[in-house]
Amino acid sequence: CLPIQGVTAHSRTDGENTYLFVENYTDKVIECLSLGEEFINMITSEKVSIISLEAYSIAVLKKKNYINGGL
Fold this sequence. Notes:
Layout: E1 7-13, E2 17-24, E3 30-41, E4 47-53, E5 58-64
Antiparallel strand pairs: 1-2, 2-5, 3-4, 3-5
């Protein structure tokens, strides 16, 4: 769970999608970080709800925004 010292998460939206940037500013690998919901990893195109971060790395994730029950 966040907060983990040295790890930050920021989200942005373009109205259609939400983008999540998870950044590891530590010299340690962060394993099994739960996102709480499913995202698409923008680098690998895989669906993920748990990620690991290498030291000094970033994950860029995306999910579709659903309005009015997905309409």
